[in-house]
Amino acid sequence: MTALVTLILPMAASSANLPKTAEASEQSPSGKVVETMNSGGYTYAKLGKNGKTTWVAFETKQVRVGDALSFENCSAMKDSQSKSLNRKFDLIYFCQQSSTGAAAAKPAMMAAKKSSGSDGAAAAPQPKIKVDKATGPNAYTIEQLFAKSAALNGKQVVVKGQVVKVSPRIMSRNWIHLQDGSGNAKKKNDLVVTSTELPRVGEVVTASGILAKDKDFGGGYKYSVIIEKGGFKK
Q1: Which of 30, 96, 123, 176 is in Cβ range 3.0-4.6 Å of 164 for a Cys bridge?
Q2: 207 forms bridges with which residues in the sheet?
Q3: pLDDT tens digit sequence for 185-204
Q4: CA 174, CA 232: separation in Å to the nearest integer?
């Protein structure tokens, strides 16, 4: 019991008793969780390894102190302010996915696995979501965007939906998944918007941007419809 208390000492404790912060060059952080919390649609975890600590943030996932986590190709952010935690991180890595337990000790094997691609990244349909169509010029439902993608390719569009998933800081952009209750056919109810902005999961937003049809980012990430350079209004 004493060992556990030592692991989760708050940040306010004397830094003399804590390991030094990891270097900013580490883009694939790994280690054992020494502190963790969930807030604002993210899991924050402080990882300890070789006498150093590293903060990471990723899509909400159940982790516990003592779990081993491993990440690949994370994006580092300095002086990152978390409004939901009311806390500033001198350095934090935003990561897409994590592995726990024995798998975390074998990052090379993880990297060799075939990517699940855009199909694996898609958010599951949310049956209780029902969002009214946006108003004004170039406004469509998600179902309409998929149905009219050929005619709308390369054009400015507007769509209103609920944020059901976010994947931050991947390829220098954020990936926001929207659903509005329309488009129940397979792969036609979850719309991805890429943006430098980052709305929170659960928010209902109006997004505007350029529609792209059959966009292929490589690595299995292909989108029959995606909105790029998106902006958001609540």
Answers
A1: 123
A2: 159, 232
A3: 667 899 999 999 999 999 99
A4: 12
Q: What are phi and psi of 219, to 5 degrees?
A: 65, 25
**Which DSSP letter does residue 104 get?**
G
Q: Evaluate whether 222 touches 214 at the Cβ level (below 8 Å).
A: yes
What CA–CA distance (Å, rounded) separates 142 from 46?
38
Fill in the amino acid letter for 46: K
The closest of 223, 206, 205 to 214, measured between CA atoms, is: 223
Burial of 103 from C-beta contacts in 10 A (0-12 / 13-18 / 19+): middle
Here the tokens at position 157 are: 């569009």
What whole-number distance in Å separates Cα of residue 149 and Cα of residue 145? Answer: 6
Ordered by start, the domain boundaries in the chain are: 2-113, 118-233
Query: What CATH number does the domain located at 2-113 have?
Result: 2.40.50.140
Stated pTM of the model: 0.54
The three-class DSSP label of residue 110 is helix
